[in-house]
Fold:
Amino acid sequence: MGGWSLMKKYDLLRSGERIIRVLEVQVDRVLVIDCIKRTMPVWVNTAELQSYSECTTSEMSEVTGVVPVGVDDLDADQRKTMYERYTTIAPVLSFVADDRMRSQLICSAAEEYGVSKATVRSYLCLYLAYMDVTVLASRRREDKRDLTQDEKNMRWALNKFFYTTKKQSLRTV
Structure:
């Protein structure tokens, strides 16, 4: 990526298996987040990024297995979770480049919303890696395996004897 003056905020860069997102650009250093490990953002010297080339969002999704979806594709519960999680990290976003302020805001967000600091950091890193609020939505569980014979027998027995019009207790069944 010849001219480093082209590097701008929110660019995705890749070197081998490592994918980073640029969060802040200064003269000699850049604030980046590792989009694979999703660890807290760090400042690196601009020179350290010489081996990196541009990366697309679809390339990153391929590597991480996380594909952001449209807000319209989320159900009401997922949307609610997404907005709650975003509200938790929103105050921190303006101060991502300031380590001390970021830490203080993470602490106060954790207290205010009754979650751990690790949870707030996790939401923050996830959001910063993708720059897409929909990644904060809870994932739908897709459990499509077949039931075992025991599970089928149990389900049959419950349906036949327990879930009846008589509404018996398990003791009387």
